[in-house]
């Protein structure tokens, strides 16, 4: 060890180790061998089916490779027990009321603070992150999250009177922020009245197990929180358990897809917070020295193992060279070392397998011609899983390093010429989690932020989080938000039966007495003795003949019944003919919707409102005609037909009214900044409308979607599409720009999968059967589009049909949530 | 460079030197007269106007120095000893007399108790403060008291602390202090020139002070607590360096807000920017409000991180401080004995 006189000259920092004593003692107290936390007590794991003894695995300190403890591999039986414990706890937890649950969450928040250092040290031991980060960032945010949601527990009933908790929630969390992700999952779930089964990541289970001890200390009722450790098999068992009503996952996009498929059609609610390749935009007027520190916080925070890491620097050409020079100089001063050292910037990568992945990706980049730059000497230990900070230049957007989420301390730098190109490059990714924008020009910042496809945009800052602000992605970064008001709704569902006839009349009276049939050949009867009417598809504001050049017959069921299956319906039974759309028509419709989206979403809300009012006016003017069509065509009663038309006009008015009133919030996040929770349209929405309520069901879904700036491709009622084809004539005369609403008629079983598969459809709403819901959800994994599958009950099976006539079920906040997404824009200020 | 606002005074055209590599150690050298001085460059208004400072980002970074680095045990002791050698031990009170100025000079020569120096094993190191800083009135007294020590005397000047005396008097004050033996002159800039963006006037003012200094080193006090924004701080720093400042200094100690870390970070970055462009090394002196050993370590960390070890050298870094030393003495005694110390155990300044 150098003496004082030597250090006086060298001015080195020296070691500053944090004591691991308390954490080691806690591990020893558990004999370094953990069971599962089920029903409020520790339980031994049970063997998997066919095995003699329970499986266990080791969790290691990635900085040294030393084993910290043995962890139980939760089997299916263990998961079952945990879910049963959570189910059993539901009633008592509900009975506790919002205030009572708030007290429990408050006790958890206090408990985190009381044991802050133990949690921090344990986290760094297990994960390899610097103690400074776990101590100053992770753990304080965990406490903040429980405090914030202790408050929400008391407010949920008042703020969301029409909703209720899902029940048992299954939560699967990643290894990069083990306890923080636990807090993000557990706090809102409990605040809303759910009970929880949580599976921590197998690399980093320890703080979740310490949290289990805290649950006992804080008086969390038995079974309300259950912790089941294990690998992906345990996660699959949890997501697959029928008692789990909602699944929340943070982790890789790959596993997100698996969970989407696994839960498809089960009626389980699902939120996914997945990967990213977040852009970090630097404009020529930025404070470049601050930009450099921003990059440090973006990609060399938590060893770059951050889903929202700013891993793609996009810099304006004129300042690129200066930035690279500054960055390289800064990288020289980053210190790598023992995560428990209070003076280091980067610790160890979580596991040797992750280290290997990072190495392989960087080498792949090098082979593609990227220039890889790493500091000359960073004190990187020779033992343990360490990877140095890395800056890659000479990378093109097509390069591996620019495309793939590396999840390590590796950043690529590319240049742009113009503001428009910066946005294009920023959005040139499958992901959409976060973005960071650096400019001193507020006009530019506020111009760019809304144009970036991301759930969070940080202006002149990065990796800022708070419990009051929602966090989550778009595109293949997943859906759902965590934190803030927008995060709570994921843990609530609408209360009461959907077919509630309290308002409007019974759902059954709105089922058309018709169906659509394909009849080969020519020679069928004409539907009308008047002038021939041939409804077409409505694509891009034009009436288009179906690509296949064929038609479908709309026939009355009574006529079918009278004449027998398979026979000609006869003149009396034929209600009309519609175009038989195919996959190319869907393609064309989506293209038209995409093309119309920028203009429509960018139009003023006032304009959208005016158009909707005008649609209402024109529909009202032709009300009698529509009533007649519903009566004589669809076979509805006079009352039902009248109600559909009247309510459709009313609904259009509602959404015209709301078009310019759904307007976001400013979140009260700490510090000197405004966090703008901006409400944005989802994009292109596919709508497979309900069979029942052939007019009102359609209007009730299309109106909110377009009112809030989306463009849509609609598959109308499968049994009576003629209401929709009549409606497009109304749209055509109401100044609705072409492509905002596209109507494709045809065989639903053929068209729904095409829409669900389509990678340029951002969301899909299915109001059909549970089988259709399953189909939609399974196929949605391509681009991880948001699904709203209304046809499946929370526990699986066909749901009750929605009563579109009622205000409670035919309109309301759920429609706003489905038609929008919240983007949080952090704007720190100060001159 | 041929802007219409080019000032009346043109600086000597020294060829720029290549910038020093980061991390390259620069040892303290004896006396302040040695080493290359910043000759200044012509006023570059384009550069000034393009300087951008984002306050929130600067504050975030400034908040990290104390959290990202930690100095323990021997390292802490060694750094605190170094802090002593970076100190402009200062008294700037209306009630100063010859006796407390002499006491201060004595403390500057022997800042640490003999037994502490021996206990720490640093007898061989030149542990004394970098300078003693007084008003012009006490320059002669201080020079006499420091005779033979090699410790220079710094004089605050140009109508300190407000800087609003007539220019001839301000220039005369500098010359008088230099004549009285001051080797370093701490001038105050006219804040109005910054607040109104009159960079030409500021440049001109500082160049005239520099000329009046002759061989004495020039420290320009920006009085950042009165400059309103960090962007002003950055621009004023750059103008002073262009005009030939040897040091840029935060505060007089008399403003409402004195040396803060965000201000220090902005000034350090300005120094780096000037170095990158011109190759000239300019020193930095935070002054006012730095009272604890912990504060000193955080400031030193800031300098090491932003500018490297070269700026933990009295040629390029000074603390303007009056009470800092006594806290450092107590911490060093604690390091040796393991017991918390008391102020009265250490000779007062």
Q: What would the principal axes of the Cα set say about the shape of chain A?
A: globular
**Main sheet of chain A?**
10 strands, mixed
How widely separated are the two ends of chain A?
46 Å
| Chain oligomer state | heterodimer
Tally of DSSP β-strands of chain B: 8
Strand order of the largest sheet of chain A: 13-14-15-12-11-16-17-32-26-25
Helix content of chain B: 40-55%
Going across the biggest sheet of chain B, name each strand in turn: 7-6-5-4-3-2-1-8
Query: Total strand count of chain A, please?
Result: 32
Q: Characterize the overall form of chain B.
A: globular
Poorly predicted runs of chain A? none
Derived structural class of chain A? alpha/beta
Q: What is the end-to-end distance of chain B? A: 49 Å
| Mean pLDDT rating of chain B | 91
Question: What does this protein look like?
Answer:
- The complex is a heterodimer of chains A (about 850) and B (about 350).
- Chain A is of the alpha/beta class.
- Helix content of chain A is about 40%, strand content about 20%.
- Chain A is built from 29 helices and 32 strands.
- Chain A starts with a helix and ends with a strand.
- The model of chain A has no long low-confidence stretch (mean pLDDT about 95).
- Chain B has about 350 residues and is α/β, with parallel strands linked by helices.
- Chain B is built from 14 helices and 8 strands.
- Chain B starts with about 45 loop residues before the first helix and ends in a 12-residue tail after the last helix.
- The interface between A and B is large, with 44 and 46 residues.
């Amino acid at each position: 060890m150098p003496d004082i006189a030597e250090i006086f000259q060298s001015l080195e920092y020296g070691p500053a180790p944090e004591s691991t004593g308390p954490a080691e003692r806690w591990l020893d107290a558990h004999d370094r061998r953990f069971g599962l936390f089920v029903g409020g007590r520790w339980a031994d794991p049970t063997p998997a089916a066919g095995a003699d003894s329970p499986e266990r695995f080791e969790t290691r300190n990635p900085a040294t490779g030393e084993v910290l403890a043995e962890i139980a591999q939760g089997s299916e039986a263990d998961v079952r027990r945990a879910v049963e414990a959570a189910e059993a706890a539901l009633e008592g937890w509900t009975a506790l009321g919002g205030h009572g649950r708030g007290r429990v969450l408050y006790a958890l928040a206090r408990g985190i603070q009381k044991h802050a250092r133990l949690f921090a040290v344990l986290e760094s031991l297990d994960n390899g992150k610097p103690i400074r980060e776990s101590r100053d960032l992770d753990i304080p945010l965990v406490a903040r999250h429980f405090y914030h949601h202790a408050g929400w527990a008391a407010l949920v009933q008042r703020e969301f009177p029409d909703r209720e908790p899902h029940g048992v929630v299954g939560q699967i969390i990643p290894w990069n922020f083990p306890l923080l992700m636990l807090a993000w999952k557990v706090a809102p779930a409990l605040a809303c009245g759910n009970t929880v089964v949580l599976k921590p990541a197998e690399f980093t289970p320890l703080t979740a197990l310490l949290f289990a001890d805290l649950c006992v200390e804080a008086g969390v009722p038995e079974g309300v929180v259950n912790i089941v450790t294990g690998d992906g098999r345990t996660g699959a068992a949890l997501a697959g358990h029928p008692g789990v009503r909602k699944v929340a996952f943070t982790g890789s996009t790959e596993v997100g897809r698996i969970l989407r498929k696994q839960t498809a059609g089960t009626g389980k609610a699902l939120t996914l917070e997945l990967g990213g390749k977040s852009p970090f935009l630097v404009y020529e007027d930025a404070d470049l020295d601050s930009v450099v520190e921003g990059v440090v916080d973006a990609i060399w925070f938590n060893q770059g193992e951050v889903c929202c890491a700013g891993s793609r620097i996009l810099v304006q050409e004129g300042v690129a060279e200066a930035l690279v020079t500054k960055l390289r100089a800064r990288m020289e001063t980053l210190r790598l070392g023992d995560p428990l050292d209070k003076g280091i910037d980067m610790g160890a990568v979580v596991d040797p397998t992750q280290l290997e992945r990072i190495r392989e990706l960087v080498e792949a980049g090098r082979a593609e011609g990227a220039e890889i730059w790493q500091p000359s000497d960073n004190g990187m230990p020779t033992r343990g899983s360490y990877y140095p900070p890395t800056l890659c230049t000479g990378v093109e957007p097509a390069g591996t390093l620019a495309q793939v989420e590396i999840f390590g301390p590796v950043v690529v730098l590319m240049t742009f010429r113009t503001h428009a190109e910066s946005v294009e490059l920023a959005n040139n990714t499958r992901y959409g989690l976060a973005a960071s924008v650096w400019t001193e020009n507020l006009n530019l910042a506020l111009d760019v932020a809304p144009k970036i496809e991301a759930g969070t945009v940080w202006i002149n800052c990065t990796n800022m989080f708070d419990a009051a602000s929602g966090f989550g992605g778009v595109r293949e970064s997943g859906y759902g938000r965590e934190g803030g008001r927008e995060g709570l709704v994921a843990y609530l569902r609408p209360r009461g039966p959907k077919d509630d006839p309290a308002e409007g009349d019974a759902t059954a009276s709105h089922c058309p007495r018709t169906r659509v049939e394909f009849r080969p050949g020519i020679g069928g009867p004409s539907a009308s003795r008047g002038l021939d009417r041939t409804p077409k598809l409505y694509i891009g504001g034009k009436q288009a003949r179906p690509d296949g050049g064929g038609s479908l017959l709309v026939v009355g069921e009574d006529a079918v019944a009278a004449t027998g299956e398979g026979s000609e319906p006869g003149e009396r039974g034929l209600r009309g003919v519609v175009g038989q759309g195919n996959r190319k028509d869907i393609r064309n419709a989506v293209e038209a919707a995409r093309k119309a989206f920028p203009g429509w979403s960018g139009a003023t809300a006032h304009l959208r409102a005016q158009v909707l009012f005008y649609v209402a006016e024109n529909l009202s003017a032709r009300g009698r005609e529509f009533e007649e069509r519903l009566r004589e065509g669809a076979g509805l009663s006079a009352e039902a037909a009248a109600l559909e038309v009247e309510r459709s006009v009313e609904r259009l008015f509602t959404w015209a009214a709301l078009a310019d009133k759904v307007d976001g919030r400013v979140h009260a996040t700490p510090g000197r900044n405004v966090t703008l929770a901006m409400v944005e349209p989802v994009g292109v929405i596919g709508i497979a409308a309900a069979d029942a309520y052939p007019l009102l069901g359609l209007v009730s879904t299309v109106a909110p979607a377009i009112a809030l700036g989306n463009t849509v491709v609609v598959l109308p009622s499968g049994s009576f599409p003629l209401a929709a084809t009549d409606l497009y004539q109304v749209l055509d005369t109401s100044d609705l720009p072409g492509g905002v609403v596209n109507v494709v008629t045809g065989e639903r079983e053929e068209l729904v999968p095409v829409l669900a598969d389509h990678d340029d459809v951002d969301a899909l709403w299915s109001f059909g059967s549970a089988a259709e819901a399953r189909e939609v959800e399974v196929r949605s994994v391509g681009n991880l589009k948001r699904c709203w599958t209304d046809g499946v009950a929370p526990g699986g099976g066909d749901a009750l049909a929605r009563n579109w006539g009622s205000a409670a079920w035919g309109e309301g906040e759920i429609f706003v949530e489905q038609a929008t997404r919240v983007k949080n824009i952090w704007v720190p200020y100060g001159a | 460079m041929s802007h219409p606002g080019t000032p009346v005074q043109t600086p000597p055209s020294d060829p720029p030197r290549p910038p020093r590599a980061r991390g390259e150690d620069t040892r303290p050298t004896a006396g302040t007269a040695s080493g290359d001085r910043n000759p200044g460059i012509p006023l570059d208004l384009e550069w000034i106007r393009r300087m951008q400072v984002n306050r929130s980002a600067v504050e975030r970074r400034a908040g990290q120095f104390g959290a990202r680095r930690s100095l323990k045990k021997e390292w802490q002791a060694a750094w605190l000893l170094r802090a002593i050698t970076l100190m402009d031990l200062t008294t700037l009170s209306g009630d100063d007399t010859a006796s407390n100025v002499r006491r201060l000079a004595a403390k500057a020569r022997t800042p640490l108790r003999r037994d502490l120096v021996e206990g720490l094993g640093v007898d061989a190191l030149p542990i004394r403060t970098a300078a003693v800083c007084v008003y012009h009135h006490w320059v002669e007294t201080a020079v006499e008291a420091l005779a033979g020590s090699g410790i220079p005397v710094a004089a605050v000047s140009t109508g300190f602390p407000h800087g609003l005396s007539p220019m001839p008097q301000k220039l005369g004050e500098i010359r008088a202090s230099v004549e009285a033996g001051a080797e370093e002159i701490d001038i105050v800039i006219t804040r109005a020139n910054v607040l109104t963006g009159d960079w030409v006037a500021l440049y001109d003012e500082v160049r005239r002070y520099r000329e009046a200094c002759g061989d004495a080193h020039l420290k320009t006090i920006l009085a950042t607590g009165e400059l309103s924004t960090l962007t002003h701080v950055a621009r004023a720093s750059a103008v002073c360096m262009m005009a030939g400042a040897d040091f840029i200094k935060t505060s007089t100690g008399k403003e409402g807000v004195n040396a803060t870390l965000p201000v220090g970070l902005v000034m350090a970055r300005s120094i780096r920017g000037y170095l990158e462009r011109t190759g000239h090394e300019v020193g930095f002196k935070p002054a006012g409000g730095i009272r604890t050993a912990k504060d000193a370590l955080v400031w030193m960390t800031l300098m090491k991180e932003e500018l490297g070890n070269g700026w933990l050298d009295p040629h390029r870094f000074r603390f303007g401080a009056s009470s800092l030393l006594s806290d450092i003495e107590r911490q060093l005694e604690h390091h040796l004995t393991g017991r918390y110390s008391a102020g009265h155990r250490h000779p007062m300044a």
